[in-house]
């Protein structure tokens, strides 16, 4: 029987599903492959960083229960003939909902307003008067009629684009890797930017949904900020390294970027003004964790049984 090692894939349903597949499942919260019984045929991993791990001699496949594979040493795997899977689309709805939630909440200054209201604790009867001041301070903007630029029109980007249209936004799409016409279920009402510069120049909000590669690393930088509208709001639920941090800090400071919403906080980002930092919650829903884990387990099962390496 093939052995499968699983990291924090929490739902019992998922584990049952994997177990039903006829695999011998070990669930581990930390990875050390330190004895023969833990010399797995395959590993399903979510967040654990696999870069420093010595693979056991049996390892044939690693499946990432998520979209990004930057916690997996893909090159080393390729050299050793280990197949790497990911689960494109399985968490797309969760990320889409988070993008639209934060986009609207940011436009209405909701995060600042809620934090400010908390400071009124203890003010007693003064609260209604103080609330009037807060009301003036946190006047927001509606997203209706504003332009959303969506970079990357894969599973997540296409969902965001389509739903933003339903919210009466104008939507411009661009994809650096795939032809916009082959993008997943994309509404015909999404305007297709011919170049990324066209998207940058015309968007009030920009959301990015591309993987981290040599081409996309640092794509938000001083040069690209200079093309954008004054006060543009940027949402990053893809990878922190897409943004050049020092340039972002300067752009937030001088108001070129009105707000940076990011799922990838670090010491620098947290201290920047006008930043909404979220602890990598974009895909963190019960449904998405389950979808990703099931998809990853099925891929591995199929691969171990039939040798199929199709990532679906
Ligand atoms: C992903 O790569 O799928 C996302 O970053 C979500 C996650 O890993 O939590």
Automatic annotation (TrEMBL):
Print the keywords alphabetically. NAD, Oxidoreductase
Keyword Oxidoreductase found: yes
The EC number(s) this enzyme carries = 1.1.1.399, 1.1.1.95
- Report which reactions are catalysed by this protein: (2R)-3-phosphoglycerate + NAD(+) = 3-phosphooxypyruvate + NADH + H(+); (R)-2-hydroxyglutarate + NAD(+) = 2-oxoglutarate + NADH + H(+)
Enumerate the GO terms in the molecular function aspect.
Answer: NAD binding; phosphoglycerate dehydrogenase activity
Per the record's keyword annotation, is Cytoplasm included, yes or no? no
The pathway entry for this protein reads as: Amino-acid biosynthesis; L-serine biosynthesis; L-serine from 3-phospho-D-glycerate: step 1/3
Family of this protein = Belongs to the D-isomer specific 2-hydroxyacid dehydrogenase family.
**What the protein does?**
Catalyzes the reversible oxidation of 3-phospho-D-glycerate to 3-phosphonooxypyruvate, the first step of the phosphorylated L-serine biosynthesis pathway. Also catalyzes the reversible oxidation of 2-hydroxyglutarate to 2-oxoglutarate.
Its name, as the record gives it, is D-3-phosphoglycerate dehydrogenase
